[in-house]
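User: tokens in, sequence out, please.
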């Protein structure tokens, strides 16, 4: 579904006397239909830049990104983005936030109400539909944001550290929740994270990026079958595979720290 070919991204100097910054260099990958791909890498390696280019928010400096054989030229309804902060509209209720994408299609409420209520039930948000987003916990806000992204049935879900701002227990709950939701709806997912354990638990593949300029250091196929129970993370096999991923990631993190 998604083909990234020899991708480069360079930003011009911010001030006179400064040099251009190359964020990504020679990045190539293929993401199959319905696949869950996680990307890890040191801070500043271009993970978010790559996601933004797949979303169509930014354009490559070189190379190209194809979606179903067509080069991405800008944002589209076939791609939905979930950010680290829920980014809900504070003046809208939870119901209206979730329904926002359907309202943009000028559908009458009678045509989307049942669907919104279905997602409220799936997300565990029944009874909170009239609440303002700021009355919800962080985890509930992210559930609403994911519902808003998925209700329009995008082919691709792009997630930029969506659980990074949550406490440990809420983060674990949201990981379980996302796995169950993905196994039911099967969108293609590109998931950015700093947490290797999260990447291994969620992903079909884990792609490790180098320090800036970001390149692909290693593309791991996750060997564990689905469905995955949370207890998998406690097994020797999981720990060994996590250690293998970290053995590639740690030198890149140390390199990035030296460059900082």
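Assistant: Sequence out:
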């Amino acid at each position: 579904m998604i083909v990234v070919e020899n991708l480069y991204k360079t930003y011009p100097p911010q001030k006179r006397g400064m040099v251009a910054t190359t964020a990504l260099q020679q990045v190539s990958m293929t993401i199959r239909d319905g696949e869950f791909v996680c990307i890890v890498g040191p801070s500043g390696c271009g993970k978010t830049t790559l996601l933004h280019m797949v979303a169509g928010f930014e354009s490559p400096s070189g190379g190209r990104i194809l979606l179903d054989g067509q080069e991405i030229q800008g944002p589209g309804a076939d791609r939905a983005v979930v950010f680290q902060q829920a980014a809900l509209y504070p003046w809208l209720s939870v119901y209206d936030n979730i329904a926002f994408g359907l309202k943009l299609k000028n559908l009458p409420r009678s045509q989307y109400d049942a669907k919104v209520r279905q997602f409220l039930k799936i997300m565990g948000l029944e009874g909170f539909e009239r609440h303002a987003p700021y009355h919800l916990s962080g985890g509930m806000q992210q559930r609403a944001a994911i519902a808003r992204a998925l209700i329009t049935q995008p082919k691709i879900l792009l997630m930029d550290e969506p659980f990074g701002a949550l406490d440990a227990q809420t983060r674990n709950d949201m990981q379980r929740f996302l796995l169950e939701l993905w196994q039911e709806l099967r969108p293609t997912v590109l998931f950015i994270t700093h947490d290797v354990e999260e990447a291994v638990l969620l992903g079909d593949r884990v792609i490790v990026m180098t320090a800036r300029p970001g390149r692909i250091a290693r593309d791991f196929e996750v060997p564990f079958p689905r469905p995955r129970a949370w207890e998998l993370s406690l097994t020797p096999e999981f720990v060994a595979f996590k250690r293998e991923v970290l053995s590639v990631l740690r030198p890149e993190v140390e390199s990035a720290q030296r460059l900082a």
